[in-house]
Amino acid sequence: MGASYPTKIILAFRSGGVCAIPKCGKHLTYDAKSGDDTYVGEAAHIRGEKPGAARYDASMTDAERDHVDNLLYLCTDDHTIIDKVPADWPTQTLMDLKASHERQVRQAMEAAFADVTFPELQNAVSWVANQAPVPSGSFDITAPEEKIKKNALSNGSRHIIAAGLMSRETVADYVEAEAQLDPDFPERLKAGFLEEYFGKRKEGHKGDDLFELMCAFAQRGLRKQADKTAGIAVLVYLFEICDVFEK
Ligand SMILES: [Zn+2]
């Protein structure tokens, strides 16, 4: 089977686009200037994909094997090494490595909310300039907690949303400032996220998967941590104020 492409996007998002082997740190995402990013890293199985594969666990289902929790985002060289020399890379070592790598990525992202100011937001939403507006809709306000429940989001996503809300005022001020120069800006910003949101929903994604795919979308084309976090700040802002995600 192998991991699906959306699973790989989620894995890349959780991995900060970087190889999970400490000391490697190779950047494995091509940040596209237009359109979607390309994820060149490999979704390596911790517990092997097929009988005979490294760290294979017969008690797992195929769905569990291909789940993001059983995958490591690795460069080709490190993927080869962990599978060719499994004695050096047992399951627990890789699980620990994955947990600490993903935790560091999350912490770096959350810490950077403090660095999100107008220039970072400007970088994060520069694509809006080419976005067509949607027919004007309402910017309904829904309490985040209620919305989190309705969208079946777990603690990981909840954490990102809570951190993102720290930048709410900055994003709101920024959107307002842009709207002074370009009245369609808020609608086009919203349109870009809604297009992606409905597209992913149509593909059957929901809950945390959908949320993390949207996070990856919000960060596309961005490399600097503060810019990437600014993308998330915008997503969380829209999550709170409008129709992105189920109300
Ligand atoms: Zn590597």
Structural write-up:
- The protein has 247 residues and is mainly alpha-helical.
- It folds into two domains: 101 residues, no CATH class; 126 residues, no CATH class.
- The protein is 52% helix and 5% strand.
- The strands form two sheets. Strands 1-2 form a two-stranded antiparallel ribbon. A two-stranded antiparallel ribbon has the order 3-4.
- A hairpin with a 7-residue loop joins β1 and β2.
- α5 crosses α11.
- About 2% of the residues have low confidence.
- The structure holds zinc ion.
- Zinc ion binds next to α3.
- The site of zinc ion (ZN) has 8 residues, from α3.
Keywords:
single chain; mainly alpha; two-stranded antiparallel ribbon; about 5% strand; binds zinc ion
SSE layout:
Elements: H1 5-14, E1 29-30, E2 38-39, E3 42-45, H2 62-65, E4 71-74, H3 76-84, H4 91-111, H5 118-124, H6 144-150, H7 155-164, H8 168-181, H9 185-202, H10 207-218, H11 225-241
Antiparallel strand pairs: 1-2, 3-4
Helix pairs in contact: 1-10, 5-11, 9-10
The protein binds zinc ion.
